[in-house]
Amino acid sequence: MAGALDKQRYLIQRIMREIEHLYFPRPDDDLDDEADPPLGLACIAKRFDASIHPVHTRCSALIIGNVSAGKSTFVNWYAGDHLQKTGVAIETNGVTVVTYGSTVNELKGESTVLLLPYLRALTEKYSGFLENLSCKTCPSDRMCMLDLIDSPGLADGDMQYPFDVMGVMGDLAEHVDIVLFLFDPIGQALGRRTLSLVDALFKKHPDKIRFCLSKCDAIPSEEERIKVICQTTQSLTSKISVRHGFDLMPIFVPGAKEGTYLHTHARKVERGDAGEDETRAERDAAFRGGTSTVNRIEDLCDDIRKCVERKVQDGLAALKKNTETLAKVLDGVVMQEKERQRKNAVRRGKILRLWLGVFALSVIFGFLGFASVALSVSSLEKNVGPGTSSGTAGGGGGASSGGSGKVQQQAWLESWRDSVVDLTEQMEEVVPLLAIAAACREKVPFHLHLLGGALLVVLALALLQSYCTRSLECLSRQEFLGLQERRVFVKTCEKQQRRLNKEYLLHCGPAALAGGGAPAEPVPAGPSASEFSHSAASPSPGRSPDPSADGRDRGGVRARRRGKRDEDPGEDFD
Ligand SMILES: Nc1nc2c(ncn2[C@@H]2O[C@H](COP(=O)(O)OP(=O)(O)OP(=O)(O)O)[C@@H](O)[C@H]2O)c(=O)[nH]1
Ligand SMILES: [Mg+2]
Questions:
Q1: Residue 493 belongs to a domain
Q2: Does any domain span residue 502?
Q3: Which of 245, 449, 472, 487 has the smallest number of CB atoms closer than 10 Å to its CB?
Q4: Are residue 66 and residue 203 in the same domain, yes or no?
Q5: Ligand nearest to the CA of 87
Q6: CA of 136 relative to ligand 1 center, distance in Å
């Protein structure tokens, strides 16, 4: 049984780790990652403004209860280490998150927020919370996928808290997967504060809440135990509206009374050190610690384990939805890009045709102009005589050699010229720009005027063309390759999701029962303290306890990415 539990735990850890790395890959140390940062679904979603389902790859349990209800003892027992102070006096003042680490370590407020970014909003919202927040790490396998949040005991009267404890508990309950309410049968179990929190949280998250009557072994007789259970149930059900059967689990930490709870046989069983043939009845007997008192602490552990399982299923389902969403978004971007490129190509064609038309027209008009000038010169020379075309100086020669008709023609030409000159002078008076042009005309030869005019026309056409046919902004080739790489990555993630889902179902389904489940791989040691600081810097809300395996997975994805890019960079888009 313990072996099967271990197999299941290792498989879940591996799946969650792989899911996490698809969202938040960590840079490789051996690669120049500043130039080529690893791709992740989270950064792709951010880059393309796609809304994806939030990713939480770790399960978390919030433990709430009255003062001395045994919250810290339960956390220590579950994690298998003496992490939290315990005692009859008020011991816990702040909030402590117990999580996985390769060593037993303690982080204070700001480091805790770096490691668990979801707490940032709470530290900003509630003054005094950051100073009373800490994180403790321990190398227990059971904590690989789980964070236990220990809270200050709730008491009425003059009890002062360094922060708004009710507000913080309410907000933490939003984030966590399961909330355990522990009631101490000896102390003030159902105070006003505790009951109002029960009421508030049960209204919002009825499925997350578990009620436990802790320290049951401290009640001397079975009769009194039944009385306490009845009274507590009555008080609670009068406060909350219970839709289904109300369950108050009587629990106690075996060995807590004697202070030996970290060394009991039950702990060994829970850690998987006991033999495979250990039955549930034997384990129950171990949990009772040799007494006849009913202890449902294993049911509570089962509930926590189921939460972790649900996390995997939710993670796989969210991965499927998110990869589909991102694939759609990227396809849309590619389509838009292609549409822009097509429109630009059409516009370029139009521009080319326009310029070809302008060129052809200028050739035709140039040819026609040249021909008309040549014809008019030759006809003038024929009618008036040589030299006429070059100016009025030749007029005398023409008069002597031509007849009266030719003289009339020349006189008409001169009068026409005079009238044009008169008109130009009148216009120069009205439009000063023309006066400047006239001044220039005296100095600049006529053919340069023509050339300038032609250039002005061309410029005007070019401006008109650029205004009318402005091309749409497109991605550069590099950016387009990046887009393609992302799409390939999302496709790879889709395949990975299918593979992981299959592995998980194989493990849970009949094949697993027949011994065909996924092979159990021992999870290598978790991150060291320095690795924790590294993961703290990463944007991931969850962390992996196994960086070496991360490298393996990531290496595979990167090799595929690179291989794909080298093979055929435009396979999907061109
Ligand atoms: N008999 C018995 N005693 C327990 C059990 N759990 C805890 N205790 C004792 O109860 C006392 C209080 O335990 P803590 O774990 O410090 O309780 P707590 O809820 O964390 O208390 P605060 O942090 O002060 O609110 C300690 O002396 C424990 O040894 C249990 O299951 N059975
Ligand atoms: Mg405590």
A1: yes
A2: yes
A3: 245
A4: yes
A5: 1
A6: 19
Separation of CA 113 and ligand 2 centre (Å)? 21
Total domains in the fold of the chain: 3
On whether both 454 and 529 belong to a single domain, the answer is: no
For residue 213, the cross-strand partners are 183, 250
Collect all residues with Cβ–Cβ distance below 8 Å to 116 and sequence separation of at least 6. Answer: 97, 99, 135, 147, 541
Ligand nearest to the CA of 74: 1
Tokens of 191: 């105070």
Do 274 and 161 share a domain, yes or no? yes
Q: Among residues 283, 318, 353, which one ends one of the domains? A: 318
Interval between CA 82 and ligand 2 midpoint (Å): 12
Distance 96 CA to ligand 2 centre (A): 9
137 residue type, one letter: T
Going by the DSSP 8-state scheme, the letter that residue 29 receives in this structure is S
Alpha carbon distance 34, 32 (integer Å): 6
Taking alpha carbons only, the member of 523, 547, 505 closest to residue 272 is 523
Say which residue the tokens 């320095």 belong to.
530
- What is the rounded distance in angstroms from the CA atom of residue 18 to the CA atom of residue 4? 21
Strands (E), 156-282: 178-183, 209-213, 248-250
pLDDT lower than 50: segments of the chain: 31, 265-266, 269, 271-276, 389-399, 512-574
Q: Which of 439, 468, 497 is the last residue of a domain?
A: 468
Tokens matching residue 215:
């320290």
Distance 305 CA to ligand 1 centre (A): 23
pLDDT tens by residue, 438-472: 666 666 666 666 677 778 887 887 777 776 666 77
Both 451 and 501 in one domain: the answer is no
Q: Which atom of ligand 1 is nearest to the CA of 65?
A: 19
Specify the pLDDT at position 211: 93
Residues 6+ apart with CB under 8 A from 428: 434, 435, 438
* Three-state secondary structure call for residue 529: helix
460 with 489, same domain? no
CA of 285 to the centre of ligand 1 (A): 22
Q: Which ligand is nearest to the CA of 181?
A: 1
Ligand with smallest separation from the Cα of 67: 1
In a mutational test of the pocket of ligand 1, which residue from 84, 88, 154, 215 has the highest number of ligand atoms less than 8 Å from its CB? Answer: 215
Domain limits at 497?
Answer: 1-38+481-574
Kindly state whether residue 251 falls inside one of the protein's structural domains. yes
Tens digits of residue pLDDT in 184-216: 887 666 778 888 899 999 989 988 999 999 999
Residue nearest to atom 30 of ligand 1 (CA): 215
Report long-range pairs for 452-456 (Cβ below 8 Å, ≥24 apart).
Answer: 454/362
Percent of the chain clearing pLDDT 70 (strictly above): 68
Ligand 2 is an ion; its neighbours by CB within 5 Å are: 71-72, 91-92
Q: Are the CB atoms for 567 and 34 separated by under 8 Å? A: no
Residue 51 domain-assigned?
A: no
